[in-house]
Amino acid sequence: MAHDTRSAGARGQPRHIVIANPESRRWQFYHRDLQAYWANRGVVPSIAVVPWERVVSQDGQLDGLSAFDRPGVVRLESPGRNTRVARLLLAVGARARGEAPEPWLNLPDRKGWLAAPALLHEGFCRVLHGLQASFAARPWLRLEAEPRDLLGMFDKVETCRQFAAAGLPTPRLLTSAVPWTPTRLLDELYADARGQGTYYVKFRHGSSASGIAMVHAGGGPGTYQATTSVLARGGEFFNTRRLRHVRGEELHAVLGFILNQGACVQEGIRMAQIDGQNFDVRVVTLNTRPAGTIFRLSSNPMTNLHLGGRRGDTDRCRSEIPRRLWLDALDACTEAAALYQTTMVGFDLLFERGYHRFFLLEANAFGDFVPDWVTPEGHSLHHLEIAATAERFSL
């Protein structure tokens, strides 16, 4: 069958194909803004929603899914916060390892339980590889994000290496020639401390501060402690919204779990503060250009809102940062965004205490869900993203 590979918008009606969890708040908010954007232009778009459950169950192969049989712009939403999809991803990961998938399909639903994060990521990787091949076989589709780029953004170690290779400032990555144990890691951090003594140990493939511990190693053996979002209970591990301070056996248990799942270890940076609170910035780039900046403040070392952080007033926070440093930081975000073939990337940006330097911490594949953020003109991030997508694909 021959296909017209022009974007659907070039023929009058824009056509959007979205892989999402249909019940999720993320999709509900985006769907509302998508309809409103086109309604303001007197256009009724065609919108096809394909559940992640269908895609994951086929390892990312799209055969038999008719939504992909004709031209359209494809958006991949986050597959998170859906128990059925998580079980399926674990089962896909098990099959990739040559293991039986059935036990994972019947996994109990326990709030915050980190059952097997590395296995879940293996399943996600297999599905994204399947999608990459499926999209390559369907050139009439236009992708808001290449699956291979999403894979890269979900690998914190690879992201740091990409930033460093591009000459972009990022916290120093620590590596080891031999597998780390908690004891060996703590000893190496202490030897490396050089008076600074703070390091982030986190899941290599985690998100939303899942599986993270900020380790204080400067005091030497017997004084090691960490601030963490991981709760160890009866040999199992859970995400908690209440950051905890751990030491001794519990510290070793938490670090052992993170290391076993695959870890990224970075030197900590003394964060700049506003009103006595640590802060960082989520910079959302659209078609490589910074489009939204969200300041996050907290008395804790992790600024995530679900961990007790709060949203900072943009003008007030921006006024604290030297203008030249701010502009240089936004330029770095533009350079980093050019590393990916995506409409949107969300970067976590940190300024050093005293505003001597800035650092790019991570790239977020799904970093655009900030439902209560608007521009001075009243536009949501999703509105800006939809407009950028329309510009990119001439819809």
Quaternary organisation: single chain
**Spatial gap, N to C terminus:** 24 Å
Mean pLDDT, nearest integer?
Answer: 94
Strand line-up of the largest beta sheet: 5-10-6-7-8-9
Number of domains: 3
**Number of beta-strand segments:** 16
Described by strand count, sense and barrel closure, the largest sheet is:
6 strands, antiparallel
Number of helices: 12
Low-pLDDT residue spans: 1-10
Structural class: alpha+beta
Q: What percent of residues are in strands? A: 15-25%
Shape: globular
Helix content: 25-40%
Write the layout of secondary structure elements.
Blueprint (H helix, E strand, L loop, with lengths): L14 E6 L4 H15 L6 E6 H6 L14 E5 L6 H14 L5 H4 L11 H20 L4 E3 L3 H7 L2 H10 L7 E2 L7 H11 L5 E6 L8 E5 L8 E9 L2 E12 H14 L1 E5 L5 E2 L2 E10 L2 E10 L11 E2 L2 H5 L4 H15 L6 E8 L6 E7 L16 H12 L3
Parallel strand pairs: 1-2, 1-3, 3-4
Antiparallel strand pairs: 5-10, 6-7, 6-10, 7-8, 8-9, 11-12, 12-13, 12-15, 13-14, 15-16
Helix pairs in contact: 1-12, 3-5, 5-6
